[in-house]
Amino acid sequence: MTAAEKTDEYDLIVLGGGAVGENVADRAVQGGLTAIIVESELVGGECSYWACMPSKALLRPAQALRAAQHVGGASQAVTGTLDVRAVFDRRDSFTSNWSDDGQVKWLDSAGIDLARGFGRLTGEREVTVTDADGGTRVLRARHAVAISTGSEAVIPPIDGLREAAPWTSREATSAEELPKSLAVIGGGVVAVEMATVYASLGSTVTLIARGELLSSMEPFAGERVAAGLKELGVDVRTSTGTTSVRRGDDGVTITLEGGEEITASEVLAATGRSAHNRDIGLETVGLEPGKWIETDDTLRVPGSDWLYAVGDVTGRVLLTHQGKYQARAAGDVIAARAKGEEVDDAPWGRHVATADHAAVPQVTFSFPEVASAGLTEAAAREAGHEVAVVDYDLGWVAGASVYEDGFEGQARLVIDTARDVVIGATFVGPEVAELIQAATVAIVGEVPIARLWHAVPAYPTISEIWLRLLEGYGRQSA
Length: 478
Known about the structure:
It comes from Microbacterium luteolum. This protein is of the alpha/beta class. Helix content is 31%, strand content 24%. It folds into three domains: 7-44 and 100-152 and 275-355, FAD/NAD(P)-binding domain; 162-271, FAD/NAD(P)-binding domain (3-Layer(bba) Sandwich); 368-477, Enolase-like, domain 1, CATH 3.30.390.30. Helix 1 (19-30) runs parallel beside helix 9 (320-338), helix 3 (52-69) crosses helix 4 and helix 3 (52-69) crosses helix 7. The mean pLDDT is 96.
């Protein structure tokens, strides 16, 4: 061992200091274990600095302005446009100007140690950390190592795209200058949210999607978001492939299938995520770098009694809140196993991530918003459920008309008719995000429809949509 090396033992070593890694370590420490996080970038990870927080900070000013412009009395008072510099400055405040000092202080207060540097598995229960100066530190885990290294943006194999130095979600959420024009390649959540941001701030935006928008959701969600983007001035091209990208002195030229060319100041590649684990020593434990790490529902890697993977790196559900949910289960079960306590690994038990399979909530903060939980109609039928589908126009709800003049939206419940419980819900419309927790509770709790009738929504609120949906189901089943 060189002078630059030292060895330390902990009960738990966590590779990756994002929100998921923080939660794994915190729950294990609360359970009586010692833990250290290894992080080579900023403590707090992607969500805090390049994803959830900065993106929502960028989206909110335009959302607030649109809301005011659609309420008589308030609209007459709104005469200006968004201040782009002020929007960026507010975004910077949410990222603490890309400083993790506050997050590091929290680790210290929670009793979690931090190793700054790049961590790599170098043996069973062993991680070697290389710091910025090249010094190494060997960490050994008495009980567990948890991989929480997250995911990274995919650059699709389009001719010339990588050489054109495209934006990914990182550049889109941290940009300090507004591009005159932006071409977005992709049709998923990042694509539509960033198209919403930059169109609202004043960029000329073209969105190019090989398929339809938000194709994993109910079809009406993508249709309504496409219409909303067009209202913002976005040139939406669905079912359109991109054959090449070239960057020149005046910007980027994107060639579409059929030969049409689009020029833009910048191009954003928003075509998905891949596992961020290519150089962390997975081969030393028999796993393939660059692939999602398979786990059981306690987040333990099959064939191992000490290795766990949590969050995006598993490929289970690429959402921060779902990763934190997994982290709570993983941290608790690691502590339980370390102390020889009983493991509650039955479905919906404390130590499992059952909700990953059929009760995932998600909000897309586009224009309009999309909030969903559980299964779509197509996914429910594919899973073999006997379903009834109830749709209702959100604009017909009294609370919606009070909230915004000309409110437009749509809601859908997917009901398992064999059990008479809700297994899926989707809401599209202005600020529908706050509706989704009620749906999530109904799905996770498997609340019978007969009991849901007694969950009376306050009047006049948009939540009255629940009454209308239940009435619709009642008419179908009568």
